[in-house]
Amino acid sequence: MKTLHLAVLSLSLLVAQSGLAAPSADLQKIMTPQASATNAEANAYLFVSTTMNDGQLINLARQARNHGFTVVLNGFGSNDAETQKRILNVNSACCDKSGPEWIVYPQAFRAFKVTAVPAFVIAKGLSGSPDTFSKVTGAMTIPEALGIFANKSALPFVRAIANKKYHNAIPNSKN
Fold it and tell me: Is 134 among the domain residues?
């Protein structure tokens, strides 16, 4: 996705020109969606906000890890370092060292028209075309969202992925 790579490149150039320290490897990882998030394979996303309380984020992060969802933030909140530290703390509290993948990707919020969190999306690619994704929004668990996807999505690939993710979840443990 050219737009994504340009955005990351622009951020890197801005940091270099400003004289600020380059982003840490952990921060760079958060800033750059993994290849699976930018291709046409089906992926599951959990949209959250830094304004959510730690208890909510820890529970949802644990569920995201267990069910194979990528956690998506719209931005870094008040500042990069605080957000990075909070993500590390949430992952540590929920899952020790094997937390879910996190990305900061405002384009995904726009593509899937996410205006409230938590929101749950199963999608092929990031075009936002109605025939490529299903979205559920509201205060619920990931298993509840998967149940809605499995039973109510008009898209067969979404129903299939929801069933697979629901039944193939990692056992609910802290590791």
Answer: yes
pTM more than 0.70: yes
φ, ψ at 53 (rounded to 5°): -75, 160
* Residue 47, CA atoms < 13 Å, CB-side half-sphere: 25
CATH number of residue 153's parent domain: 3.40.30
Beta strands in 26-111 (DSSP E): 42-47, 70-73, 102-104
131 domain residue, yes or no: yes
pLDDT tens per residue, range 18-36 = 344 445 555 455 444 544 4
The values of phi and psi at residue 156, to 5°, are -55, -40
Conformational region of residue 125, where left means phi above 0, alpha means psi within -120 to 50, and beta covers everything else = left
**Which H or E run contains 137?**
strand 133-137
Number of domains in the chain: 1
Please tell me whether residue 39 adopts helix, strand or coil conformation.
coil
- Cα(162)–Cα(42) distance, integer angstroms: 11
